[in-house]
Design a protein that fits this description.
The protein is an alpha+beta fold. It contains 2 helices and 6 strands. It has helices spanning about 100-115, 115-125, and strands at about 10-20, 30-40, 40-45, 55-60, 70-80, 90-100. The chain has a 6-stranded antiparallel beta barrel. Helix 1 crosses helix 2.
Length: about 130
């Protein structure tokens, strides 16, 4: 059985730290995770603690050569435990619920400069 791809935007592989906290919780301690891939609609990250489905996150992604971090909000849409002992034990998928257009531009600029072959491949994927 083949699973159909439902993503609207191409995802780019990335390995960047991200700071996050649970949205709406006063005095919530910031935590760290590692982004594994990202698109304009969402991201996948690995982390050391379990999150719950529909948890809302307040996130900050540091991009090199940018003065301000990309700030976005996301919702956990899936999570799974990983068996690979060399990485954090959990992975989760996020759907962005709020991200500014200027931050999307920062993401695209970073990805086009640092993953040019991957961006070109995904941009032209399916075009004959």
């Amino acid at each position: 059985m083949r699973i159909e791809e439902n993503r609207k935007f191409a995802r780019w592989n990335i390995s960047r730290p991200v700071r996050f906290s649970l949205a709406g919780k006063d005095n919530e301690e910031e935590k760290m995770a590692m982004l594994k891939d990202i698109s304009f609609a969402g991201a996948r990250m690995s982390l050391f603690e379990s999150l719950r489905l529909n948890d809302k996150l307040d996130m900050f992604l540091e991009i090199p050569d940018e003065e301000h971090a990309i700030h976005c909000e996301g919702k956990v849409v899936w999570q799974k435990s990983l068996e690979d002992m060399s990485s954090p034990p959990f992975a989760c998928g996020l759907s962005f619920t709020r991200i500014k257009d200027q931050d999307k531009e920062k993401m695209f600029k970073y990805m086009s400069q640092n993953a040019t072959d991957e961006v070109k491949k995904k941009w032209w994927e399916g075009v004959k």
